[in-house]
Write a structure and sequence with these properties.
Strand 1, helix 1 and strand 2 form a beta-alpha-beta unit. About 40% of the residues lie in helices and about 20% in strands. The longest helix has 21 residues. It is an alpha/beta fold.
Length: about 280
């Protein structure tokens, strides 16, 4: 299938910025929808990119900006919601994909790349985050006539990532000892360049239609190992103290109500399932 023009949702985020640079370099014309255009004016230097201020949760707005596009890429996702009942996750991970599918159907767009998450499962996911990601993933794959590929990464790292940089900021603020919830939770960090390569390879490959790809790096680490590594890289001496399950849960209950919600009960529940691939699959077939 021939693709020349792509509309991206979530293109101003961490993964999006890396992906859109590769797409522009590949000769694609991009429409990037964002809530705050002025915050991302640096992207305007990219020659085939049109940065558009838009409410992506309005299906009429999506339908308008999908006009003339050959494919859509949805990278929108949240790790925490403002509330505490799962409705924020539902809005971002289920309601938005439903509107994306509706707008694609209206405009006759046949190709959709969708960012999900490792362990996403609508029925048995251990958290609101994982259940909503699973529901959204199932929804887009169930759309008739839409050729969907979804990606399910473990934690993604790279320049300006939210995972290592968040811990780096916390390590700098908390002196001497760093109490860490769920220290034994497992991760297989995947490099952002590998994730964006997977998107690029899958975009025009018929063998990727309908596939759900787990994306992991080659090595499994515990959360404590990753935080201790972060401390070494930024040059701070901190004793990372792993909390038992009871104290981890208590920390989550307290941090849930702190400004910025640095750790939440939903994060705690997500960490009960190791973010590790059973088989690392990239769209290279």
């Amino acid at each position: 299938m021939k693709i020349t023009t792509i509309c991206m949702l979530g293109g101003t985020g961490f993964v999006g910025r890396h992906l859109l640079q590769k797409l522009v370099a590949g000769g694609y014309s991009l429409r990037v929808l964002t809530r705050h255009r002025e915050r991302h004016r640096d992207l305007l230097v990219l020659p085939t990119l049109n940065l558009i201020e838009a409410d992506v949760y309005d299906v009429n707005v999506l339908t308008k900006h999908f006009s003339g596009c050959d494919a859509v890429i949805n990278l929108v996702g949240i790790l925490n919601e403002k509330g505490h009942d799962g409705s924020g996750f539902q809005r971002a991970h289920v309601e938005l994909p439903r509107k994306v599918v509706q707008a694609c159907e209206t405009r006759g767009i046949k190709r959709l790349l969708h960012m999900s998450a490792l362990n996403a499962d609508a029925k048995s996911g251990s958290s609101h985050y994982l259940r909503s990601k699973g529901a959204g993933e199932d929804l887009v794959h169930g759309a008739l006539g839409l050729r969907v590929t979804s990606f399910r990464p473990s934690v993604i790292f790279g320049p300006h990532d939210s995972f290592f940089n968040r811990f780096a900021a916390l390590l700098k603020r908390i002196p001497f000892a760093f109490p860490l919830a769920c220290p034994d939770a497992g991760f297989a960090p995947v490099y952002v360049g590998d994730v964006t390569n997977a998107f690029m390879q899958a975009l025009t490959r018929p063998t990727a239609f309908g596939r759900r790809y787990d994306l992991c790096g080659p090595t499994v680490y515990t959360l404590q190992e990753l935080v201790e590594y972060t401390a070494r890289v930024i040059g701070v001496k901190r004793r990372v103290i792993g909390l038992n399950d009871k104290l981890s849960h208590l920390q989550a209950r307290i941090f849930e109500w702190l400004p910025g919600k640095p750790f939440s009960l939903d994060n705690y529940h997500s960490l009960q399932t190791d973010s590790v691939c059973r088989g690392c699959i990239f769209p290279t077939d």
